[in-house]
Each structure stands twice: as structure tokens, then as C-alpha cells.
Amino acid sequence: MDSFTAITIAVFLPFVLAGILPAVAKLLKDKIGWYASATALLSLLMVAQVAPEIIHGETIQGTIEWLPSMGINLSFYADGLSIMFGFIVSGIGVIIMSYSNGYMSTKEDLPRYYQQLLFFMGSMLGMVFSANTIQLFIFWELTSITSFMLIGYWRNRPMSVYGATKSLLITASGGLFMLAGFLVLHAITGTFDIPTILHNESIREALQNHHLFIYALILIFIGAASKSAQGPFYIWLPNAMEAPTPVSAFLHSATMVKAGIYLIARIHPMFSGTEAWFILVSGVGIFTMLLAGFLAFRQTDIKGILAYSTISQLAYLMTMYGYTTHEEPGIGVAAATFHLLNHATFKACLFLVAGIVAHETATRDITKMGGLRKEMPITFIVATIGALSMAGIPPLNGFLSKEMFYEASVEMGHLLGGPYTILIPALAVLGGVFTFAYSIKLIDGIFLGKRPTKGLPEHIHDPSMVMLAPAIFLAGLIILFGLVPSIPVHNFIEPTVSGIILEEAHLHVKLWHGFTTSLMMTIATFILGILIYTQYDRIAEWQNRFNAMFPWISVNYYYDGAVNNAKDVTFKFSSRMQPGPVKNYVIAVLLLTLAMFAIPAMMLGTNLIPQNLNFDVPLYEALIFLFMIVAALGAALLPRYLPAIIALSGLGYLVALLFIYLQAPDLALTQVLVETLSTIIFLLALVKIPQKFKEHIPTTTLARDLIISVAVSVMIFILLINATQGIVAPFESLSYYFIEKSLALAGGHNIVNVIIVDFRGYDTLGEISVLCLAALGVYNLIHSRGEDE
Amino acid sequence: MNLMLVAPELTIAVTGLAVLLIGLFLPTDSKKILGYLASLGVLIALALTVSSLGTEALLFYNTVSIDALSQFFKIVFLVVALLFTIAGIKYTEGNSNTEEFFTLGLFATIGMMFVASANDLMVLFVAFELASLATYALAGFEKKNIKSLEAAMKYFIIGSLSAALMLLGISYVYGATGTTSIPEIAANSATLASSPIGIVAVVLLLAGFGFKIALVPFHMWAPDTYQGSPSVVSALLAAGSKKMGIVAALKVFVVALIALKADWQIAFAILAVITMTYGNVVALKQTSVKRMLAYSSLAQAGYITMAFVVLTPIALGGGIFYALSHGFMKAGAFIATAAVTYMVLSENKDSADPDHIENFRGLGKRMPITALCMTIFVFALAGIPLTAGYMSKFVLFSSTIQSGFVWLAVIAILNSAISLGYYAKIVKYMYFLPTDSEKVSEPFPYTIAMIIAAVGVLALGFWSEPFVHWAMEAASVLLTGGM
After folding, report:
1. Which of A3, A386, A688, B386 has the most CB atoms less than 10 A away?
2. Closest listed residue to residue B110, CA positions, set B86, B147, B146, B81
3. ∠ CA A528-A531-A535, rounded to 5°
4. Quick check: A136 and A82 in contact, CB under 8 A?
5. Contact residues, B window 236-255, toward A, CB-based 8 Å cutoff
6. How many domains does chain B have?
7. What is the DSSP letter of A301?
8. How far is Cα A26 from Cα A34, in angstroms, rounded to an integer?
């Protein structure tokens, strides 16, 4: 099997097997979780098959045509970065799905759970292997949707639904910004294809000098930040903890939230080396790292602590990927990549432990726990390994990457010079101090100290191997990566880093590397961390007081305000804008037409009305017009229906009179007939309605309506004068044709008759058939009336 | 002249008359057959139209043009008509006026189809009015339902006003160019373009088409009418009649009045932004699903209008493709609402708001097929990938950015983000909120119509290439002046 096929299978296999999962579930019943684990394992094997090529420094690319006219195809691209993510996603996938077999009660809707997990895994794999931005966006949004479904898995809990909606609104909207960024990127580079941009230096140079560069960067960064819960977008992640714990471990610590980091790493070669990149990525990263690390103190829910810790750790990665200067674009890349891998191992491990603890003690509240080390010795050891790695204690893998983080911070500070030489390393240490403190809290709060007298079940013990084995496996990886760093560094980190900085990378990561600045910083971190830990509960209390005093300090305050108030605002808005009576609708249309008419009116000025009116109005014609005006006013103003209708029909007969004067007796006859008929119908209808206008109209309304009516009439008057007199038609009027031809071609003196029966005979035929149709309709009306009675 | 070229229209006309005539002699119980007959007629017309793809011809003294554009939009209208007739089978069950329902629907379809192939402003106006008059009557089909009557009345009054303004605009164009033929207007528009009189014509025509497309502030009838009309009719209005406004505006502005582009481009830009923002924001707090869909229609019309601003072949193709996608998505969503309304009414005859969002609670359990289809439709409307809605937005927005209108595209994308709020709400109600009510059987013809629409939405999303290609060909007709 060639590598491209292997990747395609790795991506689509979870979708296909998830599709048939409900059917398989009928066969396997409660064991369906193992089917899902096997699926994940198959994907993992497919990814593993490709790995050797990538480690040798090659890249893989292939395309299946999809929408060629827009330049979009289904294409996959594998380099070190995507392979490392592929391993994390499918590997953690296997672990999580196996673990779920123990965690999820068989009473739950298991097929839906595993199906959505597999859909998620497929989308995530699709995203990291996408070779074009549009495909990346599609898989990106699919991960948002599957995450939405999984967070809301327990549908009957209001907080689940709240968390699910919140995550969807923030991450999917962020995705749309990213799409906008990709479209801007396409406008600059002319391609959606990622490798094309990566491997073409002239395109990248043109990109960095383009005036749209900053827009593309900001828009894409908003997408990454919303997905990875950075900056103000962090608020969705703590609420996402309502999901089942294996889901939190998989999506909301190890994989999905790293999609933003993946994106930043992916576009690193295109955008880094600029000041904007450093300010945006590292700036937001440092801010989030400190804020989230600090806010973790307040949390009493174990998963809450882990959520804030995840936000803070992701911010580490952002900060490191953001370290850049023009000469050295990739200062923190190696450190970030290594820490990314390590974080996936220790955080997933800690989440699994949190799930075990919650499963056994039936609570997640850390204040109600303590002293569990004796009852759950294996869990205790595993948890300690995970937490110490997070705290950065040697010889675990977290220590190594945190050292590298400090080293990169020192280098970055040094390159920037001035106050930054001290400031950036100091902030990095501060972040480390917070991490240290809450890591210790996890162990101390759950396992050490005294067991509380009440609130916990009497018999607590280590869980079955189904749940324990995955956690032990991860703890093993933590130690292995710490003791023998060359394994991950050679296989994952080096290929990834060379994929990002676009040159061969050789890293030397050793456990012991002498008394360096970074070791000093680590020691400082430990000392400060222990000092802060002694004040842990006080700080948490202070945070609670502060938050109660100033609720507006929290971003959530604004989110909830926006989501709830949006409803009220729009309600007010729409009730004012959408008043109901049709008169107001007509007024809106007329006013806008008037307003738009003002433009040409102002441009033309007095030219709009022709100077010489070519009208010859004899006296009695003028008299007829005068009567017509009087009749029209009467129809509008008379207070009763009957006189108003008489005035209206009077108007009609006056029109007929005008036709007679204009030598169109047949038209006049029609007019008289129609007018008579409509008067009769009016009178018949009158019998059934009240004889008086009852409605009282306020003077202001009346005045407004009058002004609008007059304005519209004036507009139409001007338009008609202009149309009939002002525009000199560039052609001969049609009537001359008929005057000339009617006798010659059709032999008739009555032009109207000739037109009707000769020149437009077919139309007349059509009119006759319309009349027949109308008769049919009338017959039908009468017929159906008979049926009703 | 080859009459085969208007065979689809003739088929629809004959079917409409046949339904009317046969209906006269049938007792109410057996009028169900009429719906099947109507659907069959539409299906034949659809097949005839598809088989005539690629033909180009001018008919009836060059007043009717058969080209890629006309055939594309005819397919849009016929697809909507098909969904309308199939869903109508259930809706008209036991109604003694069944034949009128289908005949009016079919006549409206003929009007829309002739607008699509109009090559002359007179044909365009007459066909436009044919469709309008038929839909005025359809909106008020439930004669004893006060909301339906109000819907029809508002629609009719505003519609007549707009028709008057539009006709005045057409007269101006005729007065200045001496012709009503669309390509000839394009050739003779020098007089119009050089004088402010041209702006008068543009203003009047904009008011006329703005009504049909429901651009803010000509939109005010739309929420009331879509909410008050029977859902199946709302589907025809939102998915069909609105597209007629778009194809008419394309012909009149992009082909005939291209010389005045500087004047109307800016107007369309402003209207597009106002319309999409207003529609999305107001939709957020609607509790009537039909009204929410009406506001969502405004928003979608706002997106499509962007094509008039950008005016590149890809943007116009994107707009045209969007029209097709929207036909499927919106018709489907209204029909799904019709199915829910039907269920609510069959449980409680006097329910005042059968389309209230509370009635969608737990629909995933109660009516799984309807809920799934509705999910597909609202996700598509929101522009979620692998649906028709996403592809349309993608083509349209990317061409917008390509032509340098980054601000317009960013506003549109922000709007899409806002729209997620109310679309997600429907999904939340259907799948996440619990209900005590039992599972109910899903009304069969509604289900068929929904599945057809859902398959369409997914097909356009997955396998967009040929459709995008057709849409681009249709767009090229516009830019070569329709000659």
C-alpha cells in the first residue's frame, strides 16, 4: 500500500466504520467499545506505516479531484508535523476508547457515544493531513460539530447543553474567521494549496510584504485562538468539562484544543519572522498563560483545575511558537513541539485519573477529598507521575520541555534587548510557578492529607485494569520520554521541527546539561512554587471575593449578557421596526423611493421639469380636470361610504368623458361599463359593512400621512411630466407605424379595430382563452358553493 | 420555431389546466389524485428541461431566450415546484379547494420560468405578475385563518405598489432607449447612462425588485407573509418566488443596465449589508420557526445580493449557485416545519402557534426523519461544510475577497457567525431538550419531499463540481450581454 492510500484510509476508515457502528452494536451489545478501539487502532497502524518515510525526511502528497473549477481538491499532505499529530490523535484515541469500556455505564447510549468519538477522530485526522486550506477548514468545523455533540452528550443536564452551545458558538464562529483568513491568503498567494506556499520562497516573501498580510494573520489567528481557548475565547473550555471525562481527556486536552496550535505551527513558515506574529501569538499566549494559571487556584472541581491548566499549557505552546525574529524565525519551535507531545501524555494521564477518582468516589469536588493514597495506591502513583511531569520535576518529560521553554525565553528576551531581557524570562517563570502550585494541589488535595470523615463512599479502591491500564501506559511514556528523550526527539520532534523551520534540524536534548541559566530558573520555579503553595487557599479565597465584587471583570459576564440580552435587544428592535399595520410598510417603501429619487432630482435641479410645456388645454377640458380633482378629494375626504363611493364613480365617469373628448368612444364605453359594474359591486358590499368610518386618526399621524402623500404625488407628477415632455425620445413613436400601415396592410380605417383583430390577432386569441379560463373559474366557484351548502 | 423548446412551460400549463378541470368533477375525498398528477407534470417538465440543457435559441420574435441561464433557473423553479406539489399532497388532504391550490402553484411556476427566459422587459413584467398574482392568492389559501388572510393582504398591497414602481421604471428605460428588448437596451443605453434620468430608472426598478427579493427596507411584508401563509406556500415564496426576483434583477441590471453599473453597484452593496445584518440579528429572538426562517431568508438574500456588487464571472456564478442551493435548503426547511405543524395540529386542533419552537422540543425522538432533515437544512443554511450552503458561501465569499471587497466578505462572514446562534437553537431544541411526548408517525408525502431536498442539499455539497460549472456557464450568459 502506498503512503497516500494509507493516509486516506486512516482518515476515512473511522467515518466508514462509525457509519455502520449502530448495526454492529446490535451484534456486540455492551462490547461495542472494543470495536471502536479496534477502529482507532487500525488508523494508528495506517499512520505508523507512513512514519518511517517521514522520519527519513520525506513528505507525502496526493490528490483526488473534487472541485477543480475552484481549485479545490481532496488532497492530503504528510510531513513531520502532521504525522506527530496523527500519532497523538489515533494513539490517544485507542487509549480513550479502551478506557471508556470501563468508564461508561452500559445503561448509556453507547452506540451514539462511540460513533461520535469515531467521527471526531476521523475529522481530526482529516484536519491534520489536509493539504489545502479549504479542506482543513471543513474538517476543522467537523471537529467543532462533533465536539458540540459530545459535550452535550448528557442531554438532560442543562449545564451540558449550555456548555455544548457555548463551545459551538465560539469555536465554529472562530472557524469562520479562519476561513475568511484563508480566503484572504488565497487572494494574496493565488492558491489554496498549503505545500505550494510552504515550499515556494518567493510566494512567502510576497505574502509578508503584501498589504493584506496583517488581515490574513489576524483572521487566521482568531480561528486558532478560539479553538485553542486562548485570550478571551478561553471561556468555552471550562464549561466543556460537562462532557464525559474520557471525552474531555481526548478532545479538550489532548487533541481538539490543540488544533489551534497545529494551525499556528502549520502557518508558522508563512507568517513568522514578523513583529506582528510575535506580538499577536506570544502576546496573547503569555497573557493567557498567566491568567489561566492563576485562575486555576479558584477551582474546586478536579476537571475545572485541569481545564484551566490546559488553557494555560496551550498558552505556553502559543508563546513558544510566537517567539520569532526576522533573523531567527523559529526560536521556540523545538521547545513548543516537544512540550506539545509531552502535554498530550501527562494531561491525558491526569484526565484519566480524574475520571477514575470521580468514578470511584462519585464526586469531583477536591475539597471533599483527601488521603486516598492508601485506598488507591496504583492510581496515586500514576497521578503523581502525571502531576510531577506537569510541574516540571526531573527526570520526567515535562521537565525537559519546560527547560527548553525557559531557554527559548531567555534567548528571545536577549534578542529583543532592553527590559525584555529580564521581563520575558521572568514571565515564563511566573507561569511555571502557577503550574507548579496547582499540580501539587491535585496530588495533595486528592491523595495526601487526611481522609474526610463524611461525603465519601466507605469502600474506595483502585478500578479494574480496563481503566487503569491506559493510565499506566501513559505514565510509562512520561518516564520513558524523560529518561530516553532521544526516542521522541529523533522520531517526532526533529522531523516536525524541520517541517516548520524548513531546514534540517538536529536537537540535543539531555536530562543533565550542566548548570545553565534555565536550570537556575527551574530551581527558582520550585522555590517560588512551594512558597505560593503555602498561600494557595488564601489566594483562591481572595479570587472568589474579588470576582463577587467585580462580576464584570469576567469574560463570561459578557458572553452570558450577549447571548441572553441579544434576545431582548432584537425583540425591542424588531417590535419597533416591524409594526404590523400594512400602512407603515407602504410608508417605508415610499420613503426610501423618495430618498433615492432625491439623488437624480438634486443633480438635475430645475432641468427635471421641462421649460416649455407643449400642452394645449382648451377650457372645457380644464373644467373636466377640475371636476376630477374635486371628485377625487371627495372620495378621500367624505365621512361616509356612500357619498365617497358616489364621488369615486363620478371620477370614473369623468375619465370616460375625457376619452370621448379624445376621440376614443370605444374606450369610453368600456370605461363606463366597468365603472358602472364596480359601483354596483361596491354598493352590494356596502350593505355588509358599517356605514361610518369609526377610526379616529390623531392629527400628527394625519399630518405625516398628508406630507408623505403630497411628496409622493409631487414625485410622480414630476416624473410623468419629465417622461412625456422632458425626454426627447431617440426614436419615432409606435403610433405613426399604425397610422401609416393600418389601411395599407389590413384595409381598415379604425386603427384600434385593426390592431386588435389583425396586428395582434394572436394576443386577442389569448385574451379570449383567458376569458374562457375566467368563466371556468366562475363556474368552479359556483359549483363549490353548491357543495358547501 | 421549435415548440419543443417551450415544452416544459407547456407541460406545466397543460397540467395546471387539467388539474383545474378534473378537480371540478371529483368529490373531495378523491382529490388526492390531483397532487400526484401535478407532481407528475412537474417531473416531466423537469426532465424536459434537463434534457434541453446546452440548447440555445431565441423564440417568439426574440422575446424569449433559451440559454444556460434560463435553463438553470428553470431547474431551480421546477425543483421547488416539485417539492411544493409533493408536500402539497399531504397539505391539501381533505380540502375541497385542492385543485385551486395546485393550479395556482403551477401557474406561479410558469410565471417564474418565463421570467427566467425573458429576453424582453414586457415578457419579464407579465411573467413576473403572473407569478405574483398566483402567489398572492396562495398566501391566503386558508380562507378561515386570519393570519393567512393578513399575510395575503400585506403581500398583495406591497406587491402592487412595487409592481407600479417597477412598471414606471420600465417605461423610463423604454423612453430613453426606444426598445424593451433586453440586449438592445444594453446596446442603446448611452442616453440613460449619460443622464441622471438613468438613476431615476434604477431607483424605480430597484424598488420593484427589492420587494420580491425582500431586501431591507422593502422586506417588511416577508416575515408576516412567510409566517402567516401555509408552510408549503412559504416554501414556494421563499425558495421560488424570491429567486424569480433575483433572476429578473440579474437580467435587468447586469445585462440591460450594465452601463449604469456605477449607480446600482453601490446601492446593492448598501442593501446587501443592511439586509443580511438585519435579517440575522432579528432572527436570533424569534420563537416562531417560520418567522425565523423568514428572517434567515432575508439574510440569505443579502448574501446573494453580494454578487451584484462584485460582478465577476465567479461571483455571479456563485450567486446563481447559491440560488439553487437556497431553493433546496429553504424549501426543505419550510416543508419540515409543515410536517411539524401538521403533527401539532393533529394532536391539538386549536393550537395557536403550531410552528412555535417549543413544538420542536425532542423532535429527534418524536420524528427522527423530520428532525434529521431539518438538521441538514439548518446546518446548510448556516454554511456548515459538506452541504450546499457551505459550497455556495465559499464560492461567493472567496470571489468577493478575490476582487478586493475584503470588508464586504468579512461582514458576510461575521453574519454567518451570528446566524449560527439561531440555527444551533433549532438543533438544540430538536436533539438536546427532553420531551415527554411520544414518537409519532411521520406524514408520508412530507417525508418524501424532505428527503428529496436533503439529498439535493448533500449532493450539491459533496459533488458540487458539475453544478458550479453550470452556474458559471449561466453567469457567462449574463456577462456576454445575452446577445
Report:
1. A386
2. B81
3. 130
4. no
5. none
6. 1
7. B
8. 14
Q: Evaluate the CA torsion angle A634, A639, A644, A646 in order and state its sign.
A: negative
Q: List CB contacts (< 8 A) between A723 and chain B.
A: 171-172, 175
Q: Residue ranges of the domains in chain A?
A: 3-534, 535-578, 732-789
Report the DSSP beta bridge partners of residue A72. Answer: A67
pLDDT of A714-763, one tens digit each? Answer: 888 888 887 776 666 666 777 788 888 888 888 888 887 888 888 888 88
ipTM exceeds 0.85: no
| Beta-sheet strands, E only, within B307-417 | none
Percent composition of chain B: helix, strand, coil (DSSP 3-state, to 5): 80, 0, 20
| Cα maximum dimension of chain B | 69
Cβ of B401 within 8 Å of Cβ of A186? The answer is yes
Q: Which domain holds residue B438?
A: 3-479
**One-letter amino acid of A713:** S
In terms of CA atoms, which chain A residue is nearest residue B188?
A730
Q: B412 pLDDT exceeds 70?
A: yes
Residue with cell 479531484: A65
At A638-693, the pLDDT tens digits run 878 888 888 999 999 999 998 888 878 888 898 999 999 888 888 888 877 766 66
Q: A179 in contact with B at a CB cutoff of 8 Å?
A: yes
Q: What whole-number distance in Å separates Cα of residue A719 and Cα of residue A725?
A: 10
Residues within 8 A of A (CB atoms), B 17-56 only: 17, 20-21, 23-24, 28
Q: Find the residue in B nearest to A783 (Cα).
A: B24
Q: Cell 377650457 belongs to which residue?
A: A619
Separation CA A132–CA A128 (nearest Å): 11
Whole-structure pTM value: 0.81
Using a 10 angstrom Cβ sphere, with 0-12 exposed, 13-18 middle and 19 or more buried, the burial of residue A343 is: buried
- For the segment B259-318, what is each residue's pLDDT rounded down to a tens digit? 888 888 988 999 999 999 999 988 887 888 999 999 999 999 999 999 999 999 999 999
**CA distances from residue A179 to A148, A226, A567 in whole angstroms, order as listed:** 19, 13, 27
Helix residue ranges, H only, B92-145: 98-117, 121-139
Chain B residues with CB inside 8 Å of A596's CB? Answer: 199, 203, 206-207, 267
The mean pLDDT value for B206-224 works out to: 87
B144, B349 contact by CB (below 8 A): no
Please write the tens of the pLDDT for every residue from A362-401: 888 888 888 888 889 999 999 999 999 999 998 899 999 9
Give the closest residue to A299 by CA, choosing from A541, A535, A529, A554. A541
